[in-house]
Amino acid sequence: MGIKQRLQNIWAIEDNRNIIKDGAIFGIVTIIFHFLYWNTNMNLWLFGPFTTEVFDFFTNIAYQGTKILLENFSDYPFISEGMQFKYYDELGVYATITIIHDCSAIKQCMQFLLVMAFCPNKWYKRLVYFLIGSVIILFCNIIRCYLLSDVLAAGGDFDYMHDWVARPLMYVVIFALWFVWIEFFARKKKKSKNEKLEESH
After folding, report:
1. How far apart are CA 193 and CA 198, in angstroms?
2. How many Cα atoms occupy the beta-carbon half-sphere of 164 within 13 Å?
3. CA count, 13 A, side-chain hemisphere, 69
4. How do beta strands 92-98 and 84-89 pair?
5. Can you say how many angstroms the Cα of residue 99 is from the centroid of all Cα atoms in its chain?
6. Measuring CA to CA, which residue among 67, 90, 93, 83 is closest to residue 150?
7. Angle between helices 14-39 and 3-12 in degrees, nearest 10
8. How much is the pTM?
9. N or C: which end of the chain has fewer CB within 10 A?
10. Which H or E run includes 196?
11. Separation CA 130–CA 160 (nearest Å)
12. SS3 of residue 118 by DSSP
């Protein structure tokens, strides 16, 4: 069997077509989102004159959540001031990390919103799932900030962890949320012949 025939056989199955279409849409939406985010004033489109207040609010969530985790799980003494965590030892402060607007996870929530806008199913169901997913994203972002803070306090490679571990982690979270929606909620599951026979008896 040739490659063309194999591809035709794959495309002939509806579930395969849906997977390919949904995956393509996810990829295209992700690329478009990043182009718009980095090359336009997307934040102002969404939040207008309240942009700073919105970012301050979500940045504070990240800061307070990180603080709670540090207070309960970190072995490194620190002082929290403003949006900063200052780590100290007997010689004084040796490391400082600041929770800034880019740490707020708003970008990830906006990306998830755009992804959900192009997913199948009714809009109100997608809206509810977006709200639930955003809470998960914010929680994962707090964990990310906490882990990065601990890496800095321990003298680890902060830049590497930030760019190549913590940042990709958020994309994994978004992809996982999208995958769960596509797999379990996007479309009604077709009943097998056996299930139909059981219902008829």
Report:
1. 9
2. 5
3. 18
4. antiparallel
5. 18
6. 67
7. 90
8. 0.86
9. C
10. helix 193-200
11. 30
12. coil
